[in-house]
Amino acid sequence: MLEVKNIYKTFNVGTINEKRALNGLSLTLNEGDFVTVIGGNGAGKSTLMNALAGTWFVDEGNIIIDGIDVTKMPEFKRAKFLGRVFQDPTMGTAPTMGIDENLALAMRRGKSRGLKIGITKAEREKYKKLLSTLELGLEDRLTSKVGLLSGGQRQAVTLLMASLQKPKILLLDEHTAALDPKTAAKVLETTNKIISKDNLTTLMITHNMKDAIANGNRLIMMNNGNIVLDIKGEEKKNLTVETLLKKFEEVSKETFDNDSALLSL
Question: Which domains are delineated in the chain?
Answer without folding.
Answer: 2-263 (3.40.50.300)
